[in-house]
Design a protein that fits this description.
Blueprint lengths: L2 H5 L3 H8 L14 H4 L9 H7 L9 E4 L11 E3 L5 H6 L10 E9 L11 H5 L2 H9 L4 E8 L4 H15 L4 E5 L2 E5 L1 E5 L7 E10 L5 E11 L2 E8 L1 H6 L7 H10 L2
Antiparallel strand pairs: 1-3, 2-5, 3-4, 4-10, 5-6, 7-8, 8-9, 9-10
Protein name: Lipoprotein
Length: about 260
Amino acid sequence: MRLCATLAVSALSLALVTGCSDGGSKDSPEGKGADAAKPAAKALSAAELKRLILAKGDVTGYKVEPVEGGTPAKSKVKAADAQCDPLLRVMTGIAPGTPAAETNRAVQEVKKAPTDKATSMDDLADGKFEDTFKDSMDIDTTMVILSSYDGDGARQALRSVSDAMKACAGGFTGDQAGDKAKFTRVAEERPADAGDESVAFMATSDMEDGDTAPVHVQVVRHGNNVASYMTINLGAMMTEKAYSVPAAVVKAQAAKLK
């Protein structure tokens, strides 16, 4: 896949993160009976969420940093079909539903330093530079959004994403704070085993050169809190290698919410 085509995919989402079943859901967004009977807890504050979100040293093999530049206002991220708003917004770093508070972090895989000799000019002539470049870009980068809700807000937030996955399976277009977005397919995926209920999907863009570029998302409810994960891997996009939201990242965040 050509680099220019890759960078065209969900441009704002990429910039935000990098600084530049059986049927897919673990449980139905309707929730389990015993859990549904529990009284709704009060939402956590932004300060409390910042203590609970992933931090440096929480995930082996990954670095955790603040999201550079912040996220756009919810009102500036809209799909042409309003039913698809929850998908476009979570891919832009905006928590689903109407949270009382939210915070986020960028979690990037740390690759081991290469042990072979530096690439020579002869290697460049042989086309090895391109392979080396693609390998250097083969890094999972995940935006983690932690949000908290009053009342039944967390359930409703997860349900909005689940409903949008079904309504927008054939693709959708939208505007991400001035950047046009076009996804041709939304496919349900199996989420990690975490939280009270969860959903996951892959949104795919078809590039002008015929290549495809997938973005992977998981949304997990932990009581009245929701952890959302949006992962991109430019190197995998270029080589068409399969990738997903890193299970280690989801597991580490879930452990902090128990």
